[in-house]
């Protein structure tokens, strides 16, 4: 038979079925290049809306953190005043 290849062992059969080129000595699979598809307009709108919502949430959290930090500083200042008053009262008693 012409054009027919006969595999004498399982290694040759594996090489033949996998399409490995014997001359190169390395496995070189043929892969089709597929470019990623861009999201459609609706998906882009959802992504943009989600991004805007996330940025708004971050800004709101930043503002809330700033308010809490201001309140903390006020409370720390009051604490210092109270500690000073207590210390002064105790030194007056001595």
List the defining traits of the structure above.
94 residues, mainly alpha, 2 helices, 66% helix, elongated
N- and C-termini, Cα separation = 120 Å
Relative strand content: under 5%
Q: Provide the structure class.
A: mainly alpha
Question: pLDDT under 50 segments (min length 5)?
Answer: none
The best one-word shape is: elongated
Computed over alpha carbons, the radius of gyration is 38 Å
Number of strands: 0
Q: Number of helix segments?
A: 2
Strand count, sense and barrel status of the largest sheet are: none
Mean model confidence by pLDDT:
80
Give the topology string: H per helix, E per strand.
HH
Question: Can you describe what's shown?
Answer:
The chain is mainly α. The chain has a domain at 64-94. It has 2 helices and no strands.
